[in-house]
Amino acid sequence: MNVEQVREFCLTLPGVTEDSPYGPDMIVFRIERKIFLHLPLEYADPRIAIKLSPEKGLELRDRYEAVRPAFHMNKTHWNEILIENTFPDEQIKDWISESYTIVLNNLPKKLRVLYGA
Hints:
Elements: H1 3-10, E1 16-19, E2 26-31, E3 34-40, E4 47-51, H2 54-63, E5 67-69, E6 78-82, H3 89-105, H4 109-114
Antiparallel strand pairs: 1-2, 2-3, 3-4, 4-6, 5-6
């Protein structure tokens, strides 16, 4: 997957917005103002930072060199994943969806209901 494919996929998820609060080299994707994905643009090797359960994050970090704790973020929940030529597109989409769902499920009930959660 490349950066544009990640962007396109994120924008297909219900209620997702994008912005660049940290400057032009970082795009973030949110559901109800809560970030579920960071997409840095300054690296030669495209990557994303997503939320995963602590157990899943540790499992993936142990299994793959292309998954590591996300830089400048809570290392328990945020994971950086190299996205180009490392994993099948469907796997990356599944992880993005998982991050989206984690954030969605932590929203107040009245907001979750809007998105069918």
